[in-house]
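Project outcomes to date are best conveyed with an example. Our students and postdoctoral researchers have been running inverse folding experiments weekly, and each run begins with a structure described purely in tokens. The record below, which covers 83 residues, was selected by the lab manager from last quarter's runs and is presented without edits.
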């Protein structure tokens, strides 16, 4: 079973918990997704169904899940590029 998590500001903790529990986790990259049109509802429930549908079709744009050990270095270099 796989679970798709949308890449947001605080995705680390839930992805770590799910991986430690034994789930396969996909990190959805919302910046790479074309906005779906024709939907009247834009909420978390419909977004979840949309992400699951894209995952089932194997067309889900994914982000890389950095290992826990490397994340502090990545975050530091990412922060320094914004200065």
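After processing, the design step wrote out the following sequence:
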């Amino acid at each position: 079973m796989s679970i798709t998590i949308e890449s947001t500001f605080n995705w680390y903790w839930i992805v770590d918990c799910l991986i430690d529990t034994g789930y396969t986790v996909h990190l959805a990259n919302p910046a790479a997704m074309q906005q779906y049109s024709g939907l009247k509802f834009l909420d978390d429930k419909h977004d979840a169904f949309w992400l699951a549908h894209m995952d089932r079709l194997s067309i889900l744009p994914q982000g890389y899940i950095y290992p826990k050990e490397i994340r502090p270095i990545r975050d530091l270099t990412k922060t320094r590029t914004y200065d």
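The mean pLDDT is 83. The helical segments are 12-21, 44-56, 71-81. The training component of this project remains on track.
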